Sequence to fold (282 residues):
Amino acid sequence: MHTPELISPRSPRVVAARRLARRNFRSKDRRFIAEGPQAVREAVAHRGGDGQATLTELFTTVEAAERYAEIVDAARATGARVHYAADTVLAEVSQTVTPQGLVGVCRFLDSPFEEILTARPRLVAVLAHVRDPGNAGTVLRCADAAGADAVVLTDASVDLYNPKSVRASVGSLFHLPVAVGVPVEQAVGGLKAAGVRILAADGAGDDDLDDELDAGTMSGSTAWIFGNEAWGLPEETRALADAVVRVPIHGRAESLNLATAAAVCLYASARAQRRPGGCRAR
Fold:
């Protein structure tokens, strides 16, 4: 039976982890926080391109260490430092109202945009001007579920490592390459040069998603650009796309929120690509 070794919120390890709630410290340390058993489990399994373990530290309560013993043991096996913390101390490190007892400190894991292009992606989600961290994480999760090859966050979008983004991704952050801070013009130009068709998702788009599917134009490599939650995509970004596509509203709803629209678009592409003749057809 373990006893908490960290009992003071003023412990240097606790202070160092707690400051990762702020973007400037995350950028300086190149570390971020992953909370909860699912995120920590995925962090334990992930390694960076240099082969190093992504998880560097794990804070756990005694109760959580017993409940999730396999995660704690796996974390220790990767070389991560495991700290047993009092509940009150864990709450100081946590960014949630009801902590689940596991908080991991992880290395940054974003990929260079050039590496994403070199891999010849067939389905990419580009987040342009997405400012809400929960939406960013949810779109990343949708992209992962739809089998996308990569996600790109432009320089006008929210920080990938915002604690709300990490939580909303529910571990998907650790599953697929993500490039950050890429100017939208560079993202579109690079993807087009790699043979990827660019579709901008916009409720006022000239092209209908159903029509695109019926016409068989979505079976090739595709990147979807998703815009700001409130005001969509600016005209200059829409102009970069090969087509501006709207998700049809068949009922009486005024619109779809960003994450829902992204899921519809990404799954439409995934299905088209897996049909006979599609770029993922087997």
Summary: Residues 121 and 149 are 6 Å apart (CA to CA). The chain is about 40% helix and 20% strand. The mean pLDDT is 92.
